[in-house]
Amino acid sequence: MQPFVEAGQVAEVANAVKANPKLGQFTVTMSSQSNGGVSVKTRTETTVQGGVADNSRVGKFQTIGDEPPAVLGQDKGLSPMEYALQALAGCYTATLTLLASGKGIDLTKIELKLSADFDLNGFLKFNPDVRNGASEIRVDIHVESSNASQDEINALIGEIPNHSPIYDLFTNPTPVVNRIV
Predict the structure, then answer these.
(1) How far apart are CA 8 and CA 102, in angstroms?
(2) Cβ–Cβ contacts within 10 Å for residue 53, how many?
(3) Inter-residue contact 143 to 110 (CB < 8 Å)
(4) Contact, 96 vs 157, CB < 8 A?
(5) What digits encode the pLDDT tens for the residues 16-38?
(6) Confidence grade of residue 1 (pLDDT, cut at 50, 70, 90)
(7) Which site among 32, 93, 100, 135 is 20 to 30 Å from 83 CA-CA?
(8) Neighbouring residues of 63: CB distance < 8 A, sequence distance ≥ 6
(9) How far apart are alpha carbons 128 and 134 in whole angstroms?
């Protein structure tokens, strides 16, 4: 099977960022608007890398978010929690792929099952001891390789917390600045 990402590509990007650290700095922008009920329509906007704006993704991708009927939604799309899990899955997949490629590990399969536990008693403020958000997120990870031992795969998976930006976002406080415009 062809590698998920060529090792040379990973090294090329790493060398470019090492030579010019500003290239590693990104700003991702999205815009959202109400889509009726509790639904939201979101689209990609300008991306800035190394101080240079890139408009090639403006409006290129659009998502619909909603809630299931049990939470007064119309089930038009993934719920915000499901999008959060999808973001984590996407980041885990990218992180594992890039780390493996850099180590010469040929991955043949990455499968993830993600679960998040949350309680509306926190959101509805019925119980001050219950969080608004998830109380726990679990990720079951299955990785196969054509040339790595199970110990090497386990070590690769063990590196996720040290590299995954979305893992970092979920596990470390990140300021969210609400600005009225």
Answers:
(1) 8
(2) 11
(3) yes
(4) yes
(5) 889 999 988 999 999 999 999 99
(6) very low
(7) 100
(8) 41, 42, 43, 77, 78, 83
(9) 14
